[in-house]
């Protein structure tokens, strides 16, 4: 039997017995066959069953198909994607001030896109030299060729982003930010400010917002005596660690002073300070007590 056969019947199991097949064939409301199907009068129910079993079952639809329980006119057609992509997040933030001249410039889209373009413009509207690129399917970035000018307002424009359905963003998305001075700053440290019960043998760590040199770290007790130790750097000279030569005194407030950090533009950070308190027992005392 070369023609594809399809059956449509609602609320009934598939015929199994000869009598069931005969009733099925003779009911025009339940039986659908192509011209190659033999006339019921020219073939026995057993022969018809044998031929039906020889049909490629991948082309036969039965009562287990959920689509057969819904009239064709009620089946919803596929929903067409007509929504254009939009920018849902960006950096630096809109109207941000004091932005570092080397800060990353990026935009996140509402969906995966291609052909996104980013442009950075100065106060007079002239384009800033740089590269627009997609860092991942839904993120675009702009990389200036040179650090931005200090204390200057810049405008970012994103356009052209197209989704998989071919929808292009409805118009350019723009926002502005203002740069600050090009000086290094401390962006994180440990122990935290005013932390208590810090282990006396703790290492004091600080993160600078860019690669720097000439960093100086001094840790002083209440009598202004500086702790001896070594200073090392990691992560491209942005993470700095002071390791005391001996455990700090127990139950003591220490003041950390960071200064001298210089970036590749030759700008030096302003001194930065914070304090923390050590715990009650030093490692040596704890060992002796045990």
From TrEMBL:
Keywords: Signal. Residues 54-86 are annotated as: Disordered. This is Ig-like domain-containing protein. Signal peptide: none annotated. InterPro entries: Cu-Rt/internalin_Ig-like, SbsA_Ig. Coiled coil: none annotated. It comes from Nonomuraea ferruginea. Residues 81-179, 184-278 form the SbsA Ig-like domain. The lineage of its organism: Bacteria, Bacillati, Actinomycetota, Actinomycetes, Streptosporangiales.
């Amino acid at each position: 039997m070369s023609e594809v056969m399809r059956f449509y019947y609602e609320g009934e199991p598939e015929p199994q017995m000869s009598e069931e097949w005969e009733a099925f064939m003779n009911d025009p409301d339940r039986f659908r066959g192509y011209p190659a199907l033999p006339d019921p009068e020219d073939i026995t129910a057993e022969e018809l069953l044998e031929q039906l079993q020889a049909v490629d079952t991948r082309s036969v639809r039965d009562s287990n198909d959920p689509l057969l329980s819904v009239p064709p006119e009620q089946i919803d057609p596929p929903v067409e994607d007509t929504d254009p992509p939009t920018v849902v997040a960006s950096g630096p933030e809109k109207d941000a001030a004091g932005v570092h001249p080397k800060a990353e410039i990026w935009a996140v889209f509402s969906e995966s896109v291609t052909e996104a373009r980013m442009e950075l413009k100065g106060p007079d509207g002239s384009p800033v030299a740089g590269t627009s690129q997609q860092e991942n399917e839904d993120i675009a970035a702009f990389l200036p060729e040179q650090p931005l000018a200090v204390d200057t307002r810049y405008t970012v424009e994103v356009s052209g982003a197209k989704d998989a359905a071919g929808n292009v963003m409805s118009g350019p998305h723009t926002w502005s930010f203002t740069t600050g001075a090009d000086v290094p700053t401390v962006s994180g440290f440990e122990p935290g400010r005013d932390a208590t019960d810090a282990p006396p043998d703790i290492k004091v760590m600080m993160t600078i917002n860019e690669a720097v040199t000439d960093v100086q770290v001094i840790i002083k007790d209440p009598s202004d005596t500086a702790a001896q130790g070594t200073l090392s750097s990691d992560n491209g000279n942005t993470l700095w660690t002071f390791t005391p030569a001996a455990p700090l005194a127990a139950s003591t407030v220490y003041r950390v002073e960071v200064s001298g950090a210089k970036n590749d533009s030759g700008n030096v950070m302003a001194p930065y300070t914070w304090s923390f308190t050590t715990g009650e027992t030093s490692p040596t005392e704890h060992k002796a007590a045990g």
